Amino acid sequence: MTQIEKAIKSSSKARRYRLQFAQELHKHDLSYLQLECLHEINKARYQPSHLADNLSLERASVSRVLKELDDKKLITYIRDTVDRRNVYVEISKKGKSILNSIETATS
Prior knowledge:
Elements: H1 3-27, H2 32-43, H3 48-55, H4 59-71, E1 75-79, E2 87-91, H5 93-105
Antiparallel strand pairs: 1-2
Helix pairs in contact: 2-4, 3-4
C-alpha cells in the first residue's frame, strides 16, 4: 500500500468517526461546545468563571452554554454553603448518562 493509499484510508476512517460523533451529538441535541463544557464539568465541580478560564472561552459564551445545559437538566447549580456568593456547576445524573452514551457509541 502506498503512502497516498494509507492517507486516504486514514482520512476515510476519520471522516466516518466524525460523522458518527456528529450523529451522536444530534441524537442528544448537543452542540460540540455544550459537550466540551459537559465533559469538563464531569471531571470536577467548577465555578462558571473558572470553567471559562480552563476552556479558554469567553465568560459570556460559557454562561449561555451553562444555561442551555441547565435547561436540558444536564447540570445543576450548587451554592457554596460557607460563602453563598459562590456558585458551582456539577453534572447531573442525566448529564453523566448522556456522556457515557456518547462515549460508548463513538468508541
